[in-house]
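Dear support,

Our group has been running a series of protein-ligand predictions, and this particular one with magnesium ion is the one our PI (initials K.S.) wants archived with full inputs and outputs. We had some confusion internally about which version of the output was final, so please treat the block below as the authoritative record. The input we submitted was:
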Amino acid sequence: MKISVDTVKIVEVGPRDGLQNEKVIIPTQAKIDYITALGDAGLRVIEAGAFVHPKWVPQMADTADVYRNIPKDPGMEYPVLVPNMKGLERAIETGVTSIAIFTAASETFNKRNINMSIDESFENYAPVAARARAEEMRVRGYVSTAMGCPYEGEVPPEKVLEVSARLLDLGCYEVSVGDTIGVGTPLQVQGVIGILLQVIPPSKLAMHFHDTRGTALANTLAALEMGISTFDASAGGLGGCPYAPGASGNMATEDLVYLLEGMAIDSGVDLKKLVEASSVIAPYLDHPLPGRYLQACTKSGAPVAPQSPALQ
Ligand code: HMG
Ligand code: MG
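Confirmed final output from the archive:
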């Protein structure tokens, strides 16, 4: 294995991608405490919520209250999902400084998720991104269904490239390439990244793996080998997309940090404090958190550090 990356940026998506799928109502204060604890664990980019239609995703309805009450320490970034101009207006009103716009590489998923075709989503996002930039907001882009679509099956990597390039053309500082339903496998991931890298530098790409079929960490290694150094993950492995049937949680942040520590790759995250952050949200859920590292801690009673690479 040849990996030249020595530092990884983790974009923590638990409070948004994680919680959006939960059916039980989680008190706003619990979300605020969870995000605060994630920051205490060393995460510097934490997706704090979504200004989407509250009828479509009720769990995100309190995003403005959550955002207003989280610590705004220097160096912290709290992107919030914005699907259209109405969402951007809500973000501006709330004082948000960083947004994420989201579209997909497959038409049917996009229609079900945001009620727009891919082209319509770009017509919608062009003025949103322009206004956000005029307001000096940072704009991140997502391309969903990059490794497969729950409705259409295979997705051509060329389509992933086209959609990613269009997001960058709108002024996104980074595109997060999403395996929304967790179907990707390492060689496929390297194939898609190889095509993206023909046009887009690795510094503008992030990978967003869901662990539905247990391939998220293997896919992360495959992406690290290709020079990708930004990964989305969700504490405890919370998550899924309400419009992607069968999609389960994101790659667990603890599992990712454990893997990185074992390879002496710095993420700035304190694993023990991260486990504490997951235990802030766990009591509010109606199921156990699926993250493997977290489950191992629960069974053994204490977090365990990976062996230093020198000992392996
Ligand atoms: P629509 O029904 O087509 O919207 O929904 P519309 O423009 O026709 O408006 C209908 C009504 O909604 C109007 O109200 C609007 O004001 C209101 P009325 O006049 O009828 O009273 N409305 C809004 N209200 C609040 N906030 C808004 C908003 N926009 C319109 N922003 C819409 C279109 C995009 C809003 C809807 O489809 C939606 O909210 N979708 C969100 C879906 C979502 O959140 N999905 C999960 C996140 S994506 C994901 O998880 C994937 C990701 O993790 C990456 C990966 O894994 O691949 C990012
Ligand atoms: Mg997702």
